[in-house]
């Protein structure tokens, strides 16, 4: 039968040109899928000429990767559909052991406490502080040193208790992703590395299959227009099928079949025939356990970090509430008779004292954020919540789990399909000109 089909093909007047269709289609499909994946993530920043007033939210004549261009929207979807299901930010901060954090911050601030007091006093009341006897200064220093541990511990515990009111986790992560779009791209590439490679590699095989179909169509309909026309269709279908295979079916479906071969690191080997059960499920969902570790590491080291949480508290949209809470704790350090007397003598009215308290809070925030940014502290806190995140990501349902990667493709999936059609059309036309004419 094969020889008969081969003989019929050989008799076709454009036999040689027809034979080029499957390999050319495979190569073109592989190339345009690679291009589509690159355009999904790169360039990080807009490349081209910016033009105001462009339709469809376009920035101008040029291109920016779909993921970095829509970092805010995509990260919002990930928080809403996945991270929000893993727990609340209060739970995460409590798991970081606030009492230990308070001790770390206290130790760092205490070593520079006297310089901090001098800086505040010289800024607010230079004359008073320069003429204050050293004995009184020592009493103020000693009072601050003695009060700092309890004040800092109570403050950190209070901030932890009220963290839900002071930090919007969604806003914190979206702001982080928008300010560091490369981080979002790196996150998707790390989480979906195998799926992205799969899409790229399977595209050539799919393209070769479509090429055989197109060759058969050309045999029965020997019209040159069919070459670019069907190349465009295959280009669109290949992108759609490859993406579909990564995420579908969402739920596992077990199919029984007769297995006679096994594959290991040494290659493919024959084995005794037996009934095997194959899990037919989207490739990304199959890797839930493996991906859980990768994504948990990204979350605890880049997104839900101690530094990010505290930065959002101190400088974010709800910073005014944080300052009010901090002020209530600072009073313990200002109520000592020697401190209160010194302030009243040097600063005068309540208004000036109020401004002095604001200055103390500003300096305290800056002084506190220095040790909070310490890599060692952040790494130790990340280690404490890694297991929590990893176990909860593993326990997500397949539908919830797919939303770790699906938003990157779903946001502009049609763009990738249309892009495949356009590149397929152009490649088909070049193929027609180069081989058929």
TrEMBL record:
Ranges that cross the membrane: 15-37, 198-221, 227-247, 416-436
Keywords, ordered alphabetically: Membrane, Transmembrane, Transmembrane helix
Highest taxon of source: Bacteria
PANTHER family: UPF0754 MEMBRANE PROTEIN YHEB
Protein name as annotated: DUF445 domain-containing protein
């Amino acid at each position: 039968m094969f020889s008969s089909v081969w003989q019929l093909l050989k008799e076709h007047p454009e036999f040689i040109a027809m034979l080029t269709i499957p390999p050319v289609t495979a190569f073109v499909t592989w190339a345009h899928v690679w291009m589509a994946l690159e355009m999904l993530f790169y360039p990080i920043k807009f490349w081209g000429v910016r033009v105001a007033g462009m339709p469809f939210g376009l920035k101008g004549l040029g291109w920016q990767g779909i993921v970095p261009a829509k970092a805010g929207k995509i990260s919002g979807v990930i928080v809403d559909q996945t991270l929000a299901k893993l727990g609340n930010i209060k739970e995460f901060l409590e798991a970081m052991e606030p009492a230990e954090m308070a001790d770390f911050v206290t130790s760092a601030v205490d070593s520079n406490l006297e310089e901090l007091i001098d800086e505040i006093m010289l800024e607010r009341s230079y004359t008073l502080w320069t003429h204050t006897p050293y004995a009184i200064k020592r009493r103020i220093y000693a009072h601050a040193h003695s009060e700092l541990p309890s004040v800092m511990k109570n403050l950190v515990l209070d901030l932890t208790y009220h963290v839900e009111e002071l930090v919007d986790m969604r806003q914190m992560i979206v702001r982080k992703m928008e300010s560091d779009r490369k981080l979002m791209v790196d996150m998707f590439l790390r989480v979906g590395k195998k799926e992205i490679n799969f899409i790229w590699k399977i595209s050539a095989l799919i393209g070769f299959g479509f090429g055989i179909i197109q060759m058969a169509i050309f045999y029965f309909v020997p019209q040159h227009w069919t070459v670019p026309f069907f190349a465009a269709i295959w280009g669109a279908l290949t992108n759609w099928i490859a993406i579909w295979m990564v995420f579908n079916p969402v739920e596992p479906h077990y199919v029984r079949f007769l297995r006679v071969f096994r594959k290991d690191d040494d290659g493919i080997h024959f084995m005794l025939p037996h009934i095997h059960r194959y899990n037919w499920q989207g490739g990304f969902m199959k890797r839930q356990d493996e991906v859980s570790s990768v994504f948990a590491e990204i979350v605890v080291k880049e997104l839900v970090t101690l530094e990010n949480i505290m930065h959002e508290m101190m400088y974010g949209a709800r910073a005014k509430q944080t300052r009010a809470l901090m002020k209530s704790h600072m009073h313990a350090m200002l109520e000592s008779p020697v401190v209160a007397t010194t302030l009243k003598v040097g600063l005068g009215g309540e208004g000036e004292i109020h401004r002095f308290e604001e200055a103390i809070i500003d300096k305290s925030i800056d002084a506190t954020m220095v040790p909070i940014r310490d890599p060692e502290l952040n790494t130790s806190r990340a280690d404490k919540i890694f297991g929590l995140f990893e176990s909860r990501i593993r326990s997500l349902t397949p539908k919830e789990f797919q939303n770790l990667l699906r938003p990157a493709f779903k946001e502009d999936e049609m763009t990738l399909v249309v892009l495949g059609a356009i590149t397929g059309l152009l490649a088909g036309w070049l193929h027609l000109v180069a081989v058929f004419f």
